[in-house]
Amino acid sequence: MEEMSVKFPDCEDIISSSWKESSRAIELSDVQKKINTCAVNLSKWSRHKFGDLCLPSGDWNYALVHNSFLPDDAALILNLPRLSPNRDDTLCWHFDRKGFYSVRSGYKVAIGLKERAGSASPQLSSWWRFLWKCNVPNKCKIFFWKAFHGWLPTFATLARRRVDVLDHCLFCGAANESITHVLWSCQLAVDVWRMLLGEESNRNCVVHGAVGWNAADLVAWVDNFASDFRVANEPNHKEIFSHQPTWKPPKLGEFKINCDTSFRLRSGTAGVGVIIRNYKGTTIAAKSSPVLGCNSIEMLEAHACLVGLQLAIDVGISGVVLESDAEGVVRLLSNHIVPRTEIGAIIRRSLDLGASVHLLSVDAVRRGANSVAHNLAQLAHSLDGPMVWLDSLPPDIARLVSLDSSAFACSV
Q1: Per the CB 3.0–4.6 Å rule, which of 169, 235, 245, 261 could disulfide with 366?
Q2: 39 and 132 inside one domain
Q3: Residue 5: helix, strand or coil by DSSP?
Q4: Residues 262 and 372 in one domain
Q5: What is the DSSP-derived secondary structure letter of residue 305?
Q6: Whole-number pLDDT of residue 208
Q7: CATH number of the domain to which 363 belongs
Q8: Burial profile 153-167: b = 16 or more Cβ within 10 angstroms, e = fewer
Q9: What is the top-level taxon of the source organism (predicted)?
Q10: 316-350 burial, b if ≥16 CB within 10 A, otherwise e?
Q11: What is the pLDDT, as a whole number, of residue 219?
Q12: How much is the pLDDT for 237?
């Protein structure tokens, strides 16, 4: 309701007064009361509710949307898929990708608020970013982080936490075994640092009259040290398959829906492409549709799956397999997870349509096995509106379909 009225300046006072802070700590019940108060006050002023934006069929009320929102916002709203009717509202946790609250997400929010309050200087934050990006083992980074914050369990640290231990160093006998002592002051630590830095074998030799390294020895030592470092940091490469993934037809009596998206950053345009084929690789239907607005790539990918399922209903088929290269969306659909985020309504609607067409499975594939749908999505950039092909396909798309069929025939 707040976003429905942002283009009217009078609403600023209504929203501000509804969310006026109280002197005591705000609890979850207080937040719910403020939401209800704001909605009631805005409803009295505008005489409309959010439900009025939708018709009984689930379609948008185009006239009311255009009258209630700025043009750019109206275009984004009208581009959203049809809403499922008779669905209750749910509370969403804005700081989680799926909209669900967890202790972990709450902790991250609390830490973020603490940092924004000025607990960390910009210089220190820059230093921590540098540390986490360093190409060293993670255990080294975490060890340094713990040492900086005083979290290493030295005897002095444990004694300060009232643990019954002796606080002297077990190696040198010095009192107060602090973190600084363990890492730098202890004689054992000093000897280790000297060995690592090569002081014992070079500088001390020269100081005490012995023969030190010459230039060639020093270069060789540095080269060996660098080589050891590179070997230690080489990733474990997984086996790389030389063959490209290809499209595979569904089983006898089934149909396969491939869907993909295309987004061009410079022009800000987006499109979705869908193709449905049978077990012989014959095209049943294909669709290319431009998208007016794109809130996120994930939302666009979910919208493409919804378009594919709707096309299956339009052509009257049943027993379908859905394929997409968007693993996140595939995971949500295959596990029947409806997130409390902006794509939640799309996922819910897709699951409803999937039940209507007897959706057998939702699978993630590589781009190479989804090339026809990808090219249909790119074709959408040149269209003024949705285009559906039932008989003949555009020449470039028909050629790709033929290549898919040939590749499968060769692999049999």
Answers
A1: 245
A2: no
A3: helix
A4: yes
A5: H
A6: 55
A7: 3.30.420.10
A8: ebbbbbeeeeeeeeb
A9: Eukaryota
A10: ebeebbbbbbbebbbebbeeeebbbbebbbbbbbb
A11: 61
A12: 47
Range of the domain at 199: 123-217
Calpha distance 370→351 (Å, rounded): 22
* 142 and 272 belong to one structural domain: no
Whole-Å CA distances, 268 to 8, 296, 297, 301, 354: 28, 12, 12, 16, 30
Residue 270 included in any domain: yes
d(Cα 369, Cα 244) in Å, to the nearest integer? 8
| 342 lies in some domain | yes
Whether 320 contacts 290, CB under 8 Å: no
CB-count burial class (<10 Å; 0-12, 13-18, 19+) for 57: exposed
**Residue 210 shares a structural domain with residue 273:** no
Say whether both 265 and 192 belong to one domain. no
Q: Are strands 269-278 and 283-291 parallel, antiparallel or unpaired?
A: antiparallel
> For residue 23, what pLDDT is reported?
46
Residues 48 and 134 reside in one and the same domain: no
Which of these three, 189, 217, 245, is where a domain ends? 217
The domain tally of the chain equals 3
Q: What is the mean pLDDT of each run of 10 residues along the chain (412 residues)?
A: 47 59 53 68 63 74 82 76 63 79 85 65 72 81 86 85 81 85 86 67 55 60 68 55 72 95 82 94 94 80 94 94 93 90 86 93 91 94 92 91 79 56
Answer with the one of 169, 201, 217 that is the final residue of a domain: 217
Q: Which two tokens stand for residue 25?
A: 């700590």
* Residue-level pLDDT at 216: 65
Residues in the chain: 412
Whether residue 225 lies inside any domain: the answer is: no
DSSP state of 79: T
Q: Locate the DSSP E strands across 232-295.
A: 255-264, 269-278, 283-291
pLDDT at 95: 82
Q: What's phi and psi for 263, nearest 5 deg? A: -135, 130
Report the C-alpha dihedral over residues 241, 242, 247, 248, rounded to 10 degrees: -60
CB atoms within 10 A of CB 127: 13
Q: Is the residue at 103 inside a domain? A: no
- In this prediction, residue 313 carries a pLDDT of 95
pTM recorded for the entire structure: 0.57
345 and 284 inside one domain: yes
The pLDDT value recorded for residue 287 is 96
> Are residues 259 and 213 located together in one domain of the fold?
no
